[in-house]
Automatic annotation (TrEMBL):
<dbReference type="GO" id="GO:0004252">
    <property type="term" value="F:serine-type endopeptidase activity"/>
</dbReference>
<keyword id="KW-0720">Serine protease</keyword>
<dbReference type="GO" id="GO:0004177">
    <property type="term" value="F:aminopeptidase activity"/>
</dbReference>
<keyword id="KW-0645">Protease</keyword>
<dbReference type="GO" id="GO:0006508">
    <property type="term" value="P:proteolysis"/>
</dbReference>
<protein>
    <submittedName>
        <fullName>Dipeptidyl aminopeptidase/acylaminoacyl peptidase</fullName>
    </submittedName>
</protein>
<dbReference type="InterPro" id="IPR011042">
    <property type="entry name" value="6-blade_b-propeller_TolB-like"/>
</dbReference>
<dbReference type="InterPro" id="IPR011659">
    <property type="entry name" value="WD40"/>
</dbReference>
<feature type="signal peptide">
    <location>
        <begin position="1"/>
        <end position="20"/>
    </location>
</feature>
<dbReference type="InterPro" id="IPR001375">
    <property type="entry name" value="Peptidase_S9_cat"/>
</dbReference>
<dbReference type="Pfam" id="PF07676">
    <property type="entry name" value="PD40"/>
</dbReference>
<dbReference type="Pfam" id="PF00326">
    <property type="entry name" value="Peptidase_S9"/>
</dbReference>
<keyword id="KW-0378">Hydrolase</keyword>
<keyword id="KW-0732">Signal</keyword>
<keyword id="KW-0031">Aminopeptidase</keyword>
<feature type="domain" description="Peptidase S9 prolyl oligopeptidase catalytic">
    <location>
        <begin position="454"/>
        <end position="660"/>
    </location>
</feature>
<dbReference type="InterPro" id="IPR029058">
    <property type="entry name" value="AB_hydrolase_fold"/>
</dbReference>
Length: 660
């Protein structure tokens, strides 16, 4: 009896100890997708005391994410949820006097997203718009009396009687897009909404699109972006235009660069407009990077400010005195805040480190800045920036992530066989001995993107399966300069594969991974690169190719990249040798020995399912173990939480099967 009582006492004591210490740490799991909270779109209130932002949470019962508006005080001590409905609320924007917070939602049974006003003194939000088209962007006028709207023409494709969609009648050169589907001849135009009367006035009309609108500081003019070439479908050209803020006003074209000029921002005195110019002036501008530029608002010669840094810039914001422009710079595996002196073009980093900043935003008086901040161990959260420092003020993921083991993340540089230095990232499982681990090379898409020091849920989950996980910023990635980006132009699957193999050789040589247990995978261009790699090197014992393609010739006219193809490769009937060369994984499928899982989204017009289906069928034909998974109703980016979990679980099961 005494022994029994002693055992119970010991067990109770142990349980009490566990309860006192809190939950034990565990590894990250695929179904933690349901716990991950996405924070976005921070907006500083006019007086600078509060920041509004969006919070997106997964609803497991409805199998979708829902977005609400929250706000946090500048010091981070107070957090308030402002909306809480089953309908998403997005794009929070403060009225200039700070009395109202507007947002976009299709709540209350609306079929289109509408603008709602939330009085900061309290009460329910009020709908003030009754739009019939798809709202794309909006901005308050400086006096707070009007709202400038960029909206697509209404869709009248459904018949009133039966709600049956009319047949698609196609006559455009570029006729399909992911998520949008088949493209009709609707356009996006500018409108002004009177806040008090709720009256909507049309500012522009016609056969061109007007987007990215911005008010001048005095509220008399509007800057916007438009492509007025003969056939906008055949190029990526956009220019900056200015017009009076009134109906039928004649617009003035400020820029004439054959590439893209986007995101106009007025200087505080209204004399200049800062914008982003593409480095490329080709019809298809992907192989380039944005340069910060300014142009006189009355017309004149543009001045490029950031060519010396040779890195992409974004999110430009004017300083209050107009002498400086703040922007985010994408650099080697990080994104930092910089200050650009307009007169001298001097670029000075202000806030940088082993982390990334996104969505820079400033208060109306151009003195207070906020951004989203993330490092390898923290998902994006709101941070306020003061001088050369920042501090995190939102903590949406802290409660659950404090009990999760995360992989160690470190950068390394490998050398490819042609001598190219390649920046990479290694994820080492928590608690591992960091020695000869099975490895998954998870390749990023783009290709003009990069693996960086922001939190990476997918790679962390893969590492939690006791794999070393490797990110390779192969040539074509940004963050290493323009020449590095352009290195793969019209030459796919060559230097990228060389760089991936170089990273593998480096990690094998240093003893960090087991060269006999390597897998590879990725989504989009990561899936395409996976196909190229397994057709080149048989050392990879398992692969998971998502939203990829190999028989590039068959993609012409089937995906959304017609402008890229004809610019970069030429027409296939004029240059068949280029198209055949870039299709080598399909035509060398008999050389592939790697068991490969192919995945795709049913409604993907970016990289359609045919890319995965063809390679699956080919591997089936030659007898290599393979499987095909199609996610119903999804576009290029999978958004349904259960499918996100499913994809991660399939990755882990596939790699465990062949690498363990």
């Amino acid at each position: 009896m005494k022994k029994w009582m002693l055992s119970v006492a010991l067990m109770l004591g142990a349980n009490c100890f566990v309860l006192a210490q809190g939950p034990m740490n565990r590894n990250l799991l695929p179904n933690d997708v349901y716990k991950l909270i996405n924070v976005g779109d921070p907006q500083v209130s006019p007086e600078g005391k509060w920041i509004a932002y969006t919070v997106s949470k997964a609803d497991s019962a409805k199998d979708k994410r829902n977005t609400d508006i929250w706000m946090v005080s500048w010091d981070g001590h107070q957090t308030v949820q402002l909306t809480n409905t089953p309908d998403a609320e997005t794009m929070p924007r403060w009225s200039p006097d700070g009395k109202y917070l507007s947002f976009i939602s299709s709540r209350m049974g609306n079929t289109q997203s509408q603008i709602w006003l939330l009085d900061r003194r309290g009460g329910e939000a009020k709908q003030i718009s009754h739009l019939k088209g798809d709202l794309e962007e909006y901005a308050w006028s400086p006096d707070g009396k009007k709202i400038l709207i960029s909206m697509q023409d209404p869709d009248y494709s459904d018949t009133a009687a039966t709600k049956t969609r009319k047949p698609y009648v196609i006559n455009r050169y570029h006729f399909k897009d992911d998520q949008s589907g088949y493209l009709d001849n609707r356009h996006t135009h500018l409108y002004v909404l009177d806040v008090a009367t709720e009256k909507l006035d049309t500012l522009t009309s016609g056969n061109f699109d007007e987007t990215m609108p911005a008010w001048s500081p005095d509220g008399k003019k509007i800057a916007f972006v438009s492509n007025h070439t003969t056939d906008p479908d055949k190029n990526d050209n956009t220019d900056i235009w200015v017009m009076n803020a009134e109906k039928n006003a004649q617009p003035l074209q400020l820029t004439t660069w054959a590439g893209s000029d986007v995101r106009p921002i007025w200087s505080p005195d209204g004399n200049y407009i800062a914008y982003l110019q593409s480095s490329s002036n080709l019809p298809f501008t992907m192989y380039g990077q944005n340069i910060l530029a300014i142009v006189p608002a009355k017309g004149g010669t543009p001045v490029l400010l950031t060519t010396a840094v040779d890195r992409p810039v974004s999110n430009q914001q004017w300083a209050a005195d107009g002498k400086y422009i703040y922007c985010l710079v994408t650099d080697d595996r990080k994104k930092y805040l910089a200050q650009v002196e307009v007169a001298t073009k001097k670029i000075q980093p202000l806030v940088e480190g082993t982390f990334c900043l996104e969505r820079l935003n400033m208060s109306n008086n151009h003195t207070q800045m906020v951004a989203l901040w993330s490092d390898p161990y923290h998902p994006y959260e709101v941070a306020v920036i003061e001088g050369n420092t920042f501090h995190q003020v939102s903590h949406m993921n802290d409660d659950w992530m404090q009990y999760v083991n995360l992989a160690k993340v470190e950068g390394f540089t490998s050398t490819s066989k042609d001598g190219t230095k390649v920046p990479c990232i290694l994820f080492t499982p928590s608690g591992s001995n960091n020695n000869k681990l099975p490895a998954i090379f998870y390749i990023h898409g783009g290709p003009v993107a990069q693996d960086d020091y922001a939190f990476d849920f997918t790679r962390q989950v893969l590492a939690a399966g006791n794999f070393a996980v490797v990110g390779v910023n192969y040539r074509g990635s940004n963050g290493s300069g323009l020449a590095y980006i352009k290195a793969i132009y019209a030459d796919w699957g060559n230097k990228e594969v060389m760089d991936i193999i170089g990273a593998a050789d480096y990690l094998i040589k240093t003893g960090k991974i087991d060269g006999n247990r390597m897998g590879i995978g990725g989504w989009s261009y990561g899936g395409i690169s996976t196909n190229y790699t397994i057709a080149t090197d048989n050392r990879f014992k398992a692969a998971a190719s998502g939203a990829g393609s190999s028989l590039q010739l068959s993609m012409y006219g089937f995906d959304q990249y017609i402008t890229q193809y004809e610019t970069e490769l030429g027409k296939p009937w004029e240059h068949p040798e280029k198209w055949m060369a870039l299709s080598y994984p399909f035509f060398h499928v008999n050389k592939i020995t790697t068991p490969t899982l192919f995945m795709a989204s049913e409604k993907d017009f970016n990289v359609p399912t045919i890319g995965a289906e063809q390679m699956y069928q080919a591997l089936k034909s030659v007898g290599v173990p393979t499987e095909l998974v199609i996610y119903p109703g999804q576009h290029h980016g999978i958004v349904k939480p259960s499918y996100q979990v499913d994809r991660l679980e399939r990755y882990l099961n596939w790699f465990h099967q062949y690498l363990k």
